[in-house]
């Protein structure tokens, strides 16, 4: 109970109310002391006036007047003359004098607290203004013990009343907080626990209902989070199912391609010059398709196979890529250009590098054709010290702003109708496996430029991979 929010709030409320009552108690006791002394001055004034009316008062009556007033002596100043009106023997010497004509709060509080904690009986002198026009000044002497007893009695009553008020106030606040805050918070916590039991069930997503603004904002944020998480879990399940389906298709397709590979041996034996020119490329394409089928599932396992790092001439890999793209371009007005030094030798996996370049060039070609205007795709390579920088640029329409936030995310940012959004995701992972980076350098209405950065030397980074970087958060085109 005490560790709960409502229990701690109850305790804090009681403590704070008591502190507030204590702050009220101190000036209240000081005011009570002042009223007590003023009442003694008024009684003494009445007794003095009675004596003025008849100066032949019997001593026993004079003693009765002093006892009724609660004082020992009464001095009244009238017409600049100070006159001892009533007197009786003092049990103790006068300890202190207090002038009530100085009504400042701090001195009154200080004197009241000092008297409250002074346990020794003393006699004090009190000076004040007479009531009405009875004189210029009235002065009395009295004992402090009755004053202290009255202050203690008054203080106890104040504390008791404060305690009752504190308890009632704390209880009301406890009930109010429990209804307005604790219950909605418990509702949110309970809903989170129910959702955690089965996060894939969209019926368990919270529906904001709180009347308190802050709690409702928390519910709305939780609703958004749970909705995104449920969608992500469903997508993960679909990806797992897709991986299983691809595994079956890949298995059968590999068998078909293996059979096709056998027929290419006979095609190579043909004496037709056109067949002899195209047969090697056909053999290479079928071989790559077989290898791709064997490694398709690795993406579903969240990793591509480790690259087989060997020296490779970039112009050879790029030549195969551009030859295949020229066949795909056909009659479209898309030109291909390359600016790669013949001696450029990379340490890379030739098959994976072919896939990366093929994806980027194919994306550029599809973007230009989709716009319906003539365009150009340019591939260049430069030595930038520790890295090789391979740039693939196009004059296409650029990537749409909304799709930029899904760059390198599979099944999220395909900008081509029917595209799955896998091209850039796969390419980024392959480059990362080489210890390099795939970067989007530029994309607007004038075109798009991707940069492949590969380290010149093969080290641990080349075997373990590095982080994919991006200049902007943009999606792939496939």
TrEMBL record:
The keyword Transferase applies. Keywords: Coiled coil, Kinase, Membrane, Phosphoprotein, Transferase, Transmembrane, Transmembrane helix. Residues 215-242 form a coiled coil. The keyword Transmembrane helix applies. Residues 248-458 form the Histidine kinase domain. Its EC number is 2.7.13.3. The chain crosses the membrane at residues 9-30, 154-177. GO terms for molecular function: phosphorelay sensor kinase activity. It catalyses: ATP + protein L-histidine = ADP + protein N-phospho-L-histidine. It is an enzyme of class 2 (transferase). This is histidine kinase.
